[in-house]
């Protein structure tokens, strides 16, 4: 059975998404709890996997990963073995930031981050199209990011 989140849990989650480095005391004050009660709630949210982890968000350009590409992928075959082989391949490709199974003409959407066009070309030819069971790809290069967030739109009220 799924955990039922009350208003306070949702406020804690929204605050931690906005200010991941907030101290327990700061979170407790913002949601009107004692520090110990707040800590118990956060630990419960972590233990239940609702808080899946913590990470620093790094500017890709600062680490020479200035090219983002969205690649739509169609597999050659759709049997269980072929799909599992593709999924396992994707898990090993560090350039793939996200992989989503889709409805419609294409089977998957990959979000890829690479240093430049040459890096993308090597990834495409040496990995994506080389033995992973891919029949067709369609690539779109990001010209400008208008909005990007990892924060979910948590309804507090």
Shape: elongated
Number of strands: 4
Strand order in the sheet with the most strands? 2-3-1-4
Helix content: 25-40%
Q: How much strand content do the residues show?
A: 15-25%
Overview of this protein structure:
The protein is α+β, with helices and mostly antiparallel strands and 157 residues long. It has 2 domains: 7-47, Arc Repressor Mutant, subunit A, CATH 1.10.10; 60-141, Alpha-Beta Plaits. It is built from 5 helices and 4 strands. It has a 4-stranded antiparallel β-sheet. A hairpin with a 6-residue loop joins strand 2 (96-101) and strand 3. The longest helix has 13 residues, at 35-47. The chain starts with 6 loop residues before the first helix and ends in a 16-residue tail after the last strand.
How would you sum up this structure in a few lines?
With 157 residues, the protein is α+β, with helices and mostly antiparallel strands. Helices cover 36% and strands 19% of the residues.
Which descriptors apply to this entry?
single chain, 157 residues, alpha+beta, Arc Repressor Mutant, subunit A, Alpha-Beta Plaits, 2 domains, four-stranded antiparallel sheet, 5 helices, elongated
How are the SSEs placed, and which strands pair?
Elements: H1 7-18, H2 24-30, H3 35-47, E1 67-75, H4 80-91, E2 96-101, E3 108-114, H5 117-128, E4 134-141
Antiparallel strand pairs: 1-3, 1-4, 2-3
């Amino acid at each position: 059975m799924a955990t039922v989140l009350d208003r306070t849990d949702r406020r804690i989650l929204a605050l931690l998404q906005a200010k991941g480095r907030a101290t327990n005391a700061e979170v407790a004050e913002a949601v009107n709890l004692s520090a110990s009660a707040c800590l118990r709630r956060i630990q419960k949210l972590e233990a239940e996997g609702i808080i899946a982890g913590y990470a620093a968000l790094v500017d890709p350009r600062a680490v020479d990963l200035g090219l983002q590409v969205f690649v739509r992928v169609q597999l050659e075959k759709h049997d269980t073995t072929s799909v599992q082989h593709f999924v396992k391949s994707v898990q090993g490709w560090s350039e793939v930031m996200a992989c989503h199974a889709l409805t419609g003409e294409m089977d998957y959407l990959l979000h890829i981050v690479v240093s430049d066009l040459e890096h993308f070309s090597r990834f495409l030819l040496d990995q994506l199209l080389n033995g992973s069971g891919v029949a067709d790809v369609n690539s779109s290069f990001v010209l400008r990011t208008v909005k990007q967030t990892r924060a979910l739109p948590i309804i507090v009220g």
